[in-house]
Structure formats: C-alpha cells, structure tokens
Amino acid sequence: MPVTVTMPEVAETIVEGTIAKWLKQPGDPVERYESIAEIVTDKVTLELPSPATGIMGELLVAEGDTVTIDTPIAIIHSDVPLESPGPIAAPEPASTETPAPSPNGRAARHSPLVKRLAEEHGVDLSLIRGTGAGGRITKADVLQAAETRASTPIASSSSDGRVDPVRRAIAQRMTQSAHDIPHVWTMMEVDVTGLVAIVKTQKETFRQREGVNLTYLPFVLQAVARALRSSPEVNSSWQNDSIVLHQDINLGIAVARDKGLIVPVLRNADSLSIPDLARQANTLIEKARDDKLSPQDVQGGTFTVNNTGALGSILSMPLINPPQAAIMTTEAIVKRPVVVADDAIAVRSMMNLCLSFDHRPLDGHQAVGFLGQVKTVLEEITPETRI
Amino acid sequence: MAEKTVLEAIKDGLAEELERDDSVVIMGEDVGNMGGAFRATEGFLARFGERQIIDTPLAETSIVGIAIGMAVNGMRPIAEIQFADFMFPAYDQIVNEAAKFRYRSNGEFSVPMVMRTPYGAGIHGGLYHSQSIEVQLAHIPGLKVVAPSTPYDAKGLLKSSIRDPDPVMFLEHKRTYRLIKGEVPDDDYTLPIGQADVKREGSDITVLTYGLMVHFSLEAAEELAREGVSVEVIDLRSLLPLDKETVLESVKKTSKALIVYEDNLTLGYGAELSAILASEAFEYLDGPVMRVASPDIPSMPFHPAMEFEALPNPAKIAGALRQLAAY
Question: Which of B5, B209, B220, B302 is the most exposed place for a label (fewest CB within 10 A)?
Fold first, then answer.
C-alpha cells in the first residue's frame, strides 16, 4: 500500500522546508527510518527518515523546492502496513497516489482583507497556518505573523522564483522596523580632514605592523563606541513598554552582498584598540562575503553602523535594525569649501553622519548629543594621533 | 432626566411640538376621542382642541393625501397610519405625491409632513398588524425614513422629523413601545436624521441593525462577550438617508458584518447594506457578509410559538455571530 511522506514539522516556529536533496530515487528500496531526503529550513538542515519499509515511489516535490509542512512530498510503496490494515481491497488506483492540492481544497483562497494585509505587512501567506474555519487564514493570523517575525536566518537555500530566506528575513525585519518603530532622523556634518590624512600617512606602516589595511571604519567604530558609552540610551532597546539599556557595546556592521545585506556584530567594541577594531571588522566582513558567518557572528548587536558612503551616497535615512534603538550611516567623504576659523574659506574633507533613532526609548536630546560626540571624536583625529 | 418608555417619549415629543408650533396638527384614525390605538395621543384632543387633533375616517389615502395638501400650504401635519400594514392604500399618495413634490416643482413646493406608523411583529398581531414595511419606503428617493429603537432617539428624531422640510416616514416598532425604557431629557432636544449610533462598541464583528432588533442584537453581543468575542452594534436609526460613513468605518475596523432585520430576508434592507459593503469595503472584509432576518413567508404567523420561530431572536443572532467569529 502507498504511504504518503509529508514535509515534517521540525520545530514549532518553522512552517516550511526545502528539499535540498533526494537521497532515494523512485524504485530504490528503503528501510524504515532510513534517510530519504535532506531538508533545509531557515533554521536547520536535517535528514528525513522514511516512515516505512518498501520501495520508493513518486517524488512529488523537486529538489530545491520549498513547501509548507504537512505537504505530501513523496510516496513509498510499503509492503508492511504501518497502521491497522483495514479491509482487504483491490490495489488503489494510481490516481489516489497524487496528493490533493491542499488539505481542505481551499487553502489558496484568501479573503480580500487577508490579501491586502499580507501585502501591506510583507507577509508570505504560504508560510502561515490558518486558524479560521477549515484552516482559513484570518485577519488575526496575518497580523500575528506580521508581529512575530523569525529571527535572522543563517543558512539560505534559494530556488526558482521563490524568495530565499535571507531576502525574506530582510523584508520582514525592515517592514517590522518601518511599521513598529517611530523613526526620527538627524544628520551632522563632520570635518574629517584629519582622519583622511592619518589614513593616508599611516596606511603603509599600519599594514606592515598589523597585517590588515587601515581604513576609516575602525576610527568610526571607535568614535561610535566611545559616544555610546556616554549616551547609554542610544545603546538600548524598547521592549514591552520599557527601556533595556545594554551593558555591552556590540556594533553591527552592515555588509552588502549580492544575496542580501547581512550585519555581522563586532562585540565589546568599546574595549578594542584601532588595530583590534580593524582586524576584527576585516575578519567579519570577509566571513560575510564568503558566507561563512556563524550564528554567533550575527547576533547580539546593540547598534548598527552602515557605510553607505562607499557607494557614493551623501545622505541616507536608514531603517533601524530591531530591537536596536538606532543606526548610523557614514556618507561619502567629499572635499568642499568650508568656512573655518577667522571666517576663512578652506578646502576640507567633509562627511555626513546620518542617524535614525527610535523615539520610544530616547529623545533628540540624547540622540543628537550622541552624534555630536561621534563628530567630536572624529574631528579630533590628526595625522599625529597615536593608533 | 426621567426614565420613559418609547411610547411615553413619543407622546412627549408630539405634545411639545404641538405646543411649540400651532401649525403642527395630528390627524388619523382614533387619534382624538380614543387617544390613539396605542394611547400615543391620549388626552391630546382635550388639551390641544379639534384644530390640532383631527379624527379621520378609516381611509388612509385621504389621511396622507390631505396631509400633503396641508403641508404644501404651510402646515406641519403628522399623519398617523394606525398600523403600518394599512399604509398601502396611501402608498400612491406617498410615492407619487409626497416624495416627488419638491422634485416635480423644481423646489418651489415641499411637503413638510410626518407619517407616523407602528410597524413590526412580536405582539401576536398576525397578518395585518405585524408587517415590516420599511424597504417599500426606503426605496423611494424623496422620502426620509426614520426607525428609532430607544426612547431618547425616538423623541429627538421625532422632533427633527416634524421640523424637517420634507416628508419623513417615522416608523415606530410597536414591540418597543412599552418594552424599552430609557432616560429621556425633559427639555427640548433634536437628533439629526441620517446619523447612525454605535449602541455598543466592539472590535471583532459589526452588527448593523435598527428597531427592535437593536435590542436583540445587544443581548446577543452580551452573550458573545462572555465567549470572548467583541461585537459592535450599530443602530442605523435612519434608513434613508443611510449613514454610510459610520457603517463603513465600523466594518472596516472589525472586518466582519452581520446584518439583522426583522423584515423577510429577500430584498430586505440588508440586501442594500450587503451591496454597499461588497463594493465599498471589499478590501476590508475578512468574512462573508451575513444576514439574520425572517423567512420569506407571506405573513407573520398568528400563533405565538410560530411567530417566535419566524422572528429573529437573540439566540439566532448569537448563532450567526459565532459562525462569523469562527470563520
């Protein structure tokens, strides 16, 4: 008798899985509990044990395809009935082996409201289990899904037209950020002539001494870490109507990749020197580009720095990476005529710092104060600064 | 403020308007000597005299026709049709004359009359004393159709109706007359025609209703609240014009709608409401628009048990609400 194999529920919050690889092909004999497929979810990869002993039948889902849990994925022709055999009957016609499109025959139908809400909140309806009549997805289901987003996925296994888990995680988190956080935006101009000079003059000796390139990034990270130490509200989270001030200063560094932005975290940045910051940031960025970040590398960030200036931008309005309270961008460094001391006009290297902050845990008073401190630290750098 | 029945509130409203404006007159069967079939005008003949309180023959066409003539000539007549079921002989006057006068005369003449009539079932009135006639009136542009459910609304809307420059059909649910009590201010107040009233706030399902069904719906909502379902009850109060804004606002909030009316189901007032929701709140609906109404039978049964079975009641409404809640 045919046994239908379905996509298992591997963890409570996981609603779909991808067939990474079929380990058995139609016609192969299989033992009960023998692995028949590799399944990838946005959290883990696992092997699927066969529910029965018999001959592998039709594979209903192609490798690389993602289906919701309980979806039939394969048929095994078992000679050993699993459950009570029931009345002896003629072999079932082949047509019964093809699965029903959905358990209730109407899962793909959604109310106008559900469709609209899903679009508004960027919720993928195929990932939601409905609680309404006959498994229908209700308004409440969509709103709940919009609220409880999965944490940043690590592995990704993209396939045809479907959006891969990384893209989906970005979509969900950014929608959540825009939807839940009252963003306030501010910007400050920083005279980084000294910073530009120190990087230029010490580049060679630094690389020889430390083995990594000297860039602007470690200086920015150090300035941010110092400023965060004196503005703890900026290094906080708004959680359940209360402010959580984080003891550690863990800086997220936004890294652009073709497959989507990722934000590795540089821990305890306030305790690190410029060479340490340069080395660790370099390692994280390389790991991010090589897709080798571990789950620990992307967790626990308390503030994010994004160098949007690398692409030439001079002004950004970034979205906060929840549950953090703020995000800062460093914009392109451009030479501009600037009025300096004694009303003289000089050519200076100028950079904008843009800050988005969550107005729930803090006010402009603290946020702008923080940004001002970053500015002060950066402007104090001269070619003679010891690093 | 004193607690009054719907009937007492209407009686107060009539007396105050008769007192305030001597162009206001009441005419109808038994309104004078007998004081009205439901005693709404009891004592009025002695108090206001034959000029303002006019007993008429048993001829509805004449009652409404004469009222129209009076209205066009500067009076503010209140024509009483003793039971809504007997409106039909006057239907020609209502539809072809009262409703069209302003339009036909390019605004030169208007018909500031009120037609009061008790409608609805629930008092074992049988064939000729139980009908719901509201859609036959609400379908006619040129009329206003008001159907209050509480003493406060009844008095305030009655006064607005009497002062309105156009014909107002004032529908009084006879079961509410003595059943429903509420606080009514003694002083002069009016309520605007065309404004619905949220009788109970809720977040999960909206009930759209009017008349006696407001009270049955409130009972059902109370029952659902104990089951954790929050039901909003909207009393339309005015069927023509309809307060679409309040209706849509509520349904957009709750995403589910149940329409409750006592009239028989087919082409009842809920049909229009359903159509409005389908076209103007489509993207906000998270469930089918449902209706609870009486079955399509030629008349309300006379036997109390059968009448009870035919009419919507709190249990039937609660049943439909549960279905919608679970959808």
Answer: B302
3-state secondary structure of B207: strand
* Chain A residues with beta carbon closer than 8 angstroms to that of B255: 113, 139
Interchain contact, A136 vs B285, CB within 8 Å: no
- State the smallest CA–CA distance between residue A167 and chain B in angstroms: 27
Rounded mean pLDDT of chain B?
A: 97
DSSP codes joined into one string, A151-213 = PPP------SSSPPHHHHHHHHHHHHHHHHS-EEEEEEEEE-HHHHHHHHHHHHHHHHHHSS-
Residues 6+ apart with CB under 8 A from A106: A134, A136
Sequence-separated (6 or more) residues with CB below 8 Å from residue B146: B157, B161, B168, B169, B170, B171, B193, B237, B238, B239
User: Shortest CA distance to A183 belongs to which of A194, A174, A191?
Assistant: A174
Q: CB atoms < 10 A from the CB of B178, how many?
A: 14
Selecting from B282, B286, B326 the residue whose C-beta is nearest the C-beta of A114 gives B286
Residue A135's closest CA among A144, A143, A126? A126
B255 touches chain A (CB under 8 A): yes
- The DSSP annotation for A48-75 comes to EEPSSSEEEEEE-S-TT-EEETT-EEEE
Question: Is the preceding peptide bond at A93 cis, omega within 30 degrees of 0?
Answer: no
How close A71 gets to chain B, by Cα (Å)?
A: 23
Active site residues of B: 129
In chain B, what residues touch A132 (CB-CB under 8 Å)? Answer: 326-327
The answer to whether B327 faces chain A, any CB pair under 8 Å, is yes
What is the number of CB-based contacts under 8 A between chain A and chain B? 25
Q: Does A138 touch chain B (CB under 8 A)?
A: yes
Q: How many CB atoms lie within 10 A of CB A107?
A: 18
CA-nearest of A221, A284, A213 to A255 is A284
Widest CA span in chain A: 102
The two structure tokens encoding residue B184? 């009514």
Which of A89-98, A160-169, B185-194, B278-287 comes out lowest in average pLDDT? Answer: A89-98
- For residue range A24-77, what is the model confidence (pLDDT) as tens digits? 888 888 888 888 998 876 656 678 888 888 888 888 888 888 888 888 899 888
- Using a CB-CB cut-off of 8 Å, the residues of chain A touching B287 are 111
Convert the pLDDT of each residue in B169-213 to its tens digit. Answer: 999 999 999 999 999 999 899 999 999 999 999 999 999 999 999
d(CA A147, CA A214): 41
Q: Where are the beta strands (DSSP E) in A303-367?
A: 303-306, 326-330, 334-339, 345-358
The pTM of this model reads 0.56
The identity of residue A382, as a single letter, is T
